[in-house]
Amino acid sequence: MSGLRGPRLALIFPGQDARRPGMGRPWADSPSWYLAERASEVSGHDVAALLLDPVHGADHPPRTDGAQMATFVLEMVILADLRRALPAAARPLVCAGHDLGEYSALVAAGIIGFDEGVRLVAARGKAMQEASAADPGTMAAVHGLSPEALERAAESVREAGGRVWAAHLDSVQQTVLSGDPASVARCRTLARELGAARILPVPLGGAFHTPLMADAAAAFSTTLAATDFHRGSAPVVANADAQPHHGTDGWPGLLERQLTGPVRWADSVRTMADGLYCDMFVEVGPGRSLTALARQTAPRVSRLTIAEPGQLPAVPQTLVRSAA
Fold first, then answer.
1. Is the pLDDT of residue 28 over 80?
2. Which residue range(s) make up the domain with 318?
3. 3 located within any domain
4. How far apart are CA 282 and CA 76, in angstroms?
5. 254-272, pLDDT tens digit by residue?
6. How many Å apart are CA 21 and CA 57, to the nearest integer?
């Protein structure tokens, strides 16, 4: 961002849990909507139908493969329109994505191209869908309990033969459990006894980011190994270790690890805010879940959400105001 008197931008992208039926409708007239058609050609999914139909995929949990593709492509449409709205000098200092959003971040940073992103997301979604069918799992978001306390509760369930882990370390106030249904249920009971404020189901359809995804990681590794990763124009903070990496820094291994290990989102936010001195997070995608999490972890950092087309015209003025 040299030459720009303004915020040091971090572009952040939500994951599959931000998806909702019909979420593409506000963007159907976007000049970047052609990306949905291109994604259909590359992936074999009818991406426009996934994005536009208010009923398609409305079952809970949704199919992982289609939900991931729809979320990724919509984020790419929004990103392309956002780039038109940003001042020429306003380049992100860093990018990051939560879970699936990591693939959007890699495209935004120039580490992979759009077509490569589509192919990776298609292969990842297929591998995770198949692993979930073979060994069903579930997830639950626990609010109001420290990650350390919840990890100890999960460990106690595992010591008794259960299979449950802390899969999303989102903030000091939110951690997501993942595992087989019976083990997650036991850990939810322990979390209530420890004083959790509320526990909500996460409709993702599998025990994601746990060792139960080992088969998915093995299947996905072939596609990762065949993908070219470029240095890029900005680093991406990886879910696996919450550190910034360029495209030459072992991304195939980081993305494979992401499937079976926790998403270290709170640490990623701290890396961007405190280690890289970002002072504005721009959330690109449906909803505003990451904006809310950033408020909990890095309250001093300004936040901007781009989820609807009507929010784009105000972007240049927002950047100017933040620079004042």
1. yes
2. 9-133+211-323
3. no
4. 14
5. 999 999 999 999 999 999 9
6. 7
User: How many domains does one find in the chain?
Assistant: 2
Q: Chain-centre distance of CA 186, in angstroms?
A: 27
Same domain assignment for residues 79 and 37? yes
Whether residues 121 and 225 share a domain: the answer is: yes
- Classify burial at 174, counting beta carbons within 10 Å of its beta carbon; exposed 0-12, middle 13-18, buried 19 or more: buried
Residues 68 and 161 both lie in one domain: no
Burial class of 308 by CB neighbour count within 10 A (0 to 12, 13 to 18, 19+): exposed
> Are 43 and 65 found together in one domain?
yes
Contact of 280 with 294, CB cutoff 8 Å: no
- Closest to 94 (Cα-Cα) out of 262, 286, 282: 282
183/189 Cα distance (integer angstroms)? 10
Q: What is the pLDDT of residue 86?
A: 87
CA–CA separation, 231 vs 115, rounded Å?
Answer: 17
Cβ atoms of 320 and 6 within 8 Å: the answer is yes
What amino acid occupies position 3?
A: G
pTM of the model: 0.95
Residue found by looking up tokens 């306003």 in the block: 90
4: in domain:
no
Check which CATH number belongs to the domain holding 160 and give it: 3.30.70.250
- Copy the structure tokens of residue 274: 């405190």
Task: Name the domain boundary from 149, 171, 202.
Answer: 202
Q: Write the pLDDT tens digit of every residue in 156-185.
A: 999 999 999 999 999 999 999 999 999 999
Question: Which candidate, 297, 236, 287, places its Cα nearest to that of 102?
Answer: 236
Same domain, 160 and 64: no
- Using alpha carbons, select from 131, 236, 138, 256 the residue that is nearest to residue 187: 138
Q: Both 170 and 309 in a single domain?
A: no
50-104 per-position pLDDT tens digit: 999 865 445 556 689 999 999 999 999 999 999 999 887 688 999 999 999 999 9
**Residue 13 shares a structural domain with residue 159:** no
